[in-house]
Amino acid sequence: MFMADSTAPRTELTLRGVLLGIAITLVFTAAQVYLGLKVGLTFATSIPAAVISMALLRAFKTSTIQENNIVQTIASAAGTLSSVIFVLPGLLMIGWWANVPFLPTFGACAVGGILGVMYTIPLRRALVTNSNLPYPEGVAAAEVLKVGTGSREGAAEGKAGLVAVSLGAIASALFGALGAAKLFAAEVAGYFKFKAGAGATGLGASSSLALMGAGHLMGITVGIAMFAGLFIAWAILVPILTLATPMPDANAATHALGVWKTQVRFLGAGVIGAAAIWTLAKLVGPITSGLKSALEAAKARKSGAGDLPRVEQDIPIGIVGLVSLLLLAPAGWFLAHFLAGGPITSLAAPLVAIGIGYLIFAGLLAAAVCGYMAGLIGSSNSPVSGIAILTVLGASLMVGVVGRGLVGPDITKALVAFALYVTTCVLAVAVVANDNLQDLKTGQLVDATPWKQQVGLVIGVLSGAVVIPFVLELLNRSNGFAGAPNLQAISDQPLAAPQATLISTLAKGVLGGDLDWGLLGVGALIGLGLVAIDTILRKTSKDRYSLPPLGVGLAIYLPSTVTAPVVVGAVAGWLFEKIVAKDRAAEPAKRLGVLIASGFIVGESLFNVALALMIVSTGKGEPLAVPFAPPEHVGMILSLIAAAIVVVGLYRWARKAGAKALEDILGLDKLIPILPKTP
Question: How does residue 384 score in pLDDT terms, banded at 50, 70 and 90?
Fold first, then answer.
């Protein structure tokens, strides 16, 4: 058990730690932006950042577990901020932006992100110190830091962990390169018609190790929920709706995908919205009672003698309040600057006032809710998508009230754009809060100083806010986004940006008056049914089993090309952990499996960012394509075989490397029985 003197000074917030955190931030933010734009999902960066930090800082004798914690705090804050790309591409899709401007993008990320840090500081005692919330990812990151710092086992596992991330990254980057060369098929898919050609359905799956890695990290519970969503979408909804919407001249793929895009996705959005509202409703009581107990504890401490122990020292509440108030000035300036020179400049004063008010109150609510949800189910599984949907609906309704009576396509576009920009600012608050309390839980478990972590979080937010506009514009110029004019896109393969598509569609529907509330309503009813099933499962199994309705809704809404490999990855990760569970080195092996999955995501994502840079610099849409590429069906077979070999091979390596790490710490030449004998 980790024990330390909570009053002793220690190496913690250092220049080298900050610089290393920023460097890791640059890598992971680029990876997160690409992954989010391609599939609408992001991954937790705390654990891989901690492993990289431990491996590199081990060269310094004065490095500590608290310094490593600062590094992962900075990197994870920037990584989570990348979720603003769930909204920002919508401004390109509606034609408001042709390019991604640096200043407005940086402003929304920086102001919203720092407010997210400030808003959650008063919640730390309520939701971390005085709470029994599990914080699964925060606890896992703390365990990795404890194991990897200051011991022979930590040294061995730390080195193996760095190798695991590297192997996963190299494998997925090579896999991506073979796909870009057209030697592997980008997608494995099959669609068919039935009932005399009147109906159609099928399934597609991207050839992506990154998506399989995401599935491993999400776990089997979310994987099962996504499988349920796939089944509902493609085995029930698409067949029924294609029968109701015949397309006699279309082939099976066109028919099935067309109905999914125009009808099933909106049903999925309704499921997500209903599940998010249910989740928020359940959190009102716990958040209220937590805040009440924190205020009572604060009064008790204030009336007592002596200073607060180091591990209870937050950024002073006076500074938190002052910074929050001062940030409203640049927030107002960025909102006004966004409207300057547009068709609704005359409405700038009331719109900016509404935007600031919404940022304050919706931001506070989103911070509290997301912080609680991160503690309950982890920041990766927290339903940020649902928060974004509710936020854009609220912003659009308020903006619509101000613009009521004004007509014209340019005015509607401007109102939609402003609603999206306000939503981006609030979402930045929400996603940073979603990560912030998770990091503070890690800090609590490793005896960190809260205010130093909070400074690290601000540094991470600013670092990510600088990187995001450049990566977003690079991808805009290379690939563009589905549904956008893509006037400057070089490649003919636009990024799907599924979350941004939904958010911008909802904003246009509310302000244009043509939102299909019927489909959303039916989806909401499906969502309520799923909530009931989840509730019954939890009660009858005493919380052993669940079917997260948000996971189901996401799988209905997202394309099967995204969710199918995520499900495969979740099952593969579950099987791996079941197989190694009886080994003496089970825990090291499981951690290495997590790091391999993280490497899959990082490698493929960074390769595709590099590919985007190559597309822009060469002016070719497919610069790596070879003239001797095999037929598509052969490419599908090759990609499936290669993926199976890579995943099985690296999981076997993780099992053996975990055993070797345990063998090193025990100092035995041969440790039996760690692994069963194999031929």
Answer: confident
What is this structure's pTM? Answer: 0.74
N-term to C-term CA, the chain: 39
Residue matched to tokens 């705390």: 46
398 pLDDT higher than 80: yes
CA distance 175 to 166: 14
Q: What does the alpha-carbon distance between residue 320 and residue 328 come to, in Å, rounded to a whole number?
A: 13
| Residues in a beta bridge with 192 | 201
Cβ of 167: how many Cβ atoms within 10 Å?
A: 22
Distance CA 242, CA 631 (A): 30
Residue pair 187/561 in contact by the 8 Å Cβ criterion: yes
The C-alpha atoms of residue 28 and residue 26 are separated, in whole angstroms, by 6
Residues 339-348 as b or e (16 or more Cβ within 10 Å = b): beebbbeebb
**What are residue 481's DSSP bridge partners?**
495
CB 172 within 8 A of CB 600: yes
Q: Output the CA–CA distances (angstroms, integers) from residue 307 to 122, 301, 654, in the order listed.
A: 18, 9, 47
Q: How many CA atoms lie within 13 A of 488 on its CB side?
A: 15
Residues in CB range of 353: below 8 A, 6 or more apart: none
Residue range 427-448, pLDDT digits in tens: 999 888 888 888 888 888 888 8
Give 175's contacts (C-beta < 8 A, 6+ positions apart): 184, 207, 208, 209, 604, 639, 642, 643, 646
